[in-house]
Design brief:
- By secondary structure, the chain is an alpha/beta fold.
- About 30% of the residues lie in helices and about 10% in strands.
- It has seven helices and nine strands, in the order ααααβββαββββββαα.
- It has helices spanning about 1-30, 55-65, 85-95, 105-115, 180-190, 260-275, 300-310, and strands at about 135-140, 145-150, 165-170, 195-200, 210-215, 235, 240-245, 250, 260.
- The longest helix is centred in the N-terminal third of the chain and has 31 residues, at about 1-30.
- The chain starts with a helix and ends with a helix.
């Protein structure tokens, strides 16, 4: 009897220990999936004059996406002081996302900042290249300026007039289920521009290449991917032609909660490949952010932007 009791106790203890290990493993797994933008949650409500842990991360975030620069004044570049420059940057961000420009990190601002997004900056070198069209006012660090909803990448890079037939190829290691969604995205852009796109197996000579990468993948520290839920993808302007997905993200061919739609993200990044910057129109494919499980198509703002860039009637 004693032996049987000992065996039963051993089994119970083994079961309890195994459950603790599994629970701990699940916690670690969930912890690893935490968004790199999660730090913004506890900054909600902070404002100029405060000094709070991780304000420096907020500064790095806004620097990365073009809203903040400490090149002329380094006094608070690496600390947690919510200074005048940071307040101005938050106001610029709020205006760009149609949020009341208070300079305070309110709940609407934090919610927008935490959304997964494209890795390309919204503002480069203090400005974006804009054209006439529907206007709005955007507050820069120094004054108000009038801009269009859609934007062009700095310097207005574009494919040469004789280069409207573009080839694209998938680098080795690209997941097979991405090929059809990306091909469909190219077809959508072809239907709305003067471009045509052809898939080639000769990826080494293709005008455009598509591939999946993790972390720092050779594009420089500022373009490194950051794991799940932060930067989803990025693409380079004409005539570079590189388009990279973050391989750490959950991707899907159809709308799936908790995963990002391959075709929707491809539509956005192809816009960069053609020379478009980000749009402030939330319905536009060139809007910088996208939630998981969401699909989007082309918007009139995207079509007007590409026609304006290439002078298409």
């Amino acid at each position: 009897m004693a032996t049987q009791a000992f065996l039963m106790l051993s089994i119970v203890l083994f079961f309890l220990v195994s459950q603790i290990v599994v629970a701990h493993s699940d916690f670690d797994h969930d912890h690893q999936k935490q968004s790199p933008f999660e730090f913004l949650k506890h900054l909600q409500g902070c404002h100029k004059g405060e000094k709070i842990k991780d304000v420096n991360k907020l500064k790095k975030y806004l620097e990365k996406f073009g809203y903040l620069s400490y090149t002329k004044n380094q006094s608070h570049a690496n600390d947690d002081e919510f200074d005048d420059l940071l307040e101005s940057a938050v106001k610029t961000y709020q205006l760009n996302y149609h949020i009341k420009a208070t300079g305070v990190l309110d709940s609407n601002t934090v919610s927008k900042m935490m959304m997964p997004r494209c890795g390309i900056a919204d503002i480069v070198n203090g400005t974006t290249s804009m054209r006439a069209g529907k206007k709005r006012h955007l507050l820069s660090s120094h004054n108000f300026r009038t801009v269009s909803h859609y934007s062009f990448l700095p310097g207005e890079p574009k494919w040469h007039a004789s280069k409207y037939h573009l080839t694209y190829g998938f680098l080795p290691g690209t997941r097979s289920d991405a090929i059809t969604p990306v091909t469909q995205a190219f077809s959508t852009w072809a239907a709305n521009t003067h471009f045509d796109f052809t898939h080639t197996q000769d990826y080494t000579n293709a005008d455009i290449t598509i591939s999946f990468h993790r972390g720092n993948h050779g594009d420089g520290d500022i373009n490194a991917f950051d794991g799940r839920g932060g930067i989803l993808a990025h693409a380079f302007p004409p005539q570079d032609g590189r388009f990279h997905y973050d391989a750490d993200e959950q991707w899907s061919v159809v709308a799936t909660q908790g995963a990002f739609h391959l075709e929707t993200v491809a539509l956005h990044e192809i816009g960069h490949l053609l020379g478009l910057g980000h749009s402030s129109v939330e319905g536009a494919i060139m809007f910088p952010s996208i939630a998981s499980g969401v699909t989007k198509g082309m918007h009139g703002d995207d079509i007007q932007g590409i026609k304006d860039l290439y002078n298409i009637a």
